[in-house]
Amino acid sequence: MAFISANAPAHHGIVARIAAYAAEQRTAFSKWMMYRRTVRELSQLSAHELDDLGLNRGSIHATAYDVVYNAK
Fold first, then answer.
1. What letters, b where the CB count within 10 A reaches 16 and e where it falls short, cover 21-60?
2. Is the pTM of this model over 0.70?
3. Among 23, 39, 44, 64, whose CB has the most other CB atoms within 10 angstroms?
4. Rounded Cα distance, 47 and 3, in Å
């Protein structure tokens, strides 16, 4: 009786570490871009519009950070 085993080549070592690092950097960059876009959009709102959202100019950066980095 014969058995055939077809295994995909495993990525070990430095190649896997580089791939993981690149993926982490892409994720970090995407989050940073989302943060900057959120700050920009909130900054364009009037004081009245910010008040309707329960925000003020001083809380824009903290709110954007919470939305992007603390999102679950």
1. eeeeeeeeeeeeeebeebbeebeeeeeeebeeeebeeeeb
2. yes
3. 64
4. 72
- Report d(CA 40, CA 34) in Å as an integer: 10
Domain count, the chain: 1
* 3-state DSSP assignment of residue 16: helix
Establish if 27 belongs to a structural domain: yes
> DSSP readout, 23-68?
HHHHHHHHHHHHHHHHHHHHHTS-HHHHHHTT--GGGHHHHHHHHH
The pLDDT of residue 4: 64
Q: Tell me, yes or no, whether 44 lies in a domain.
A: yes
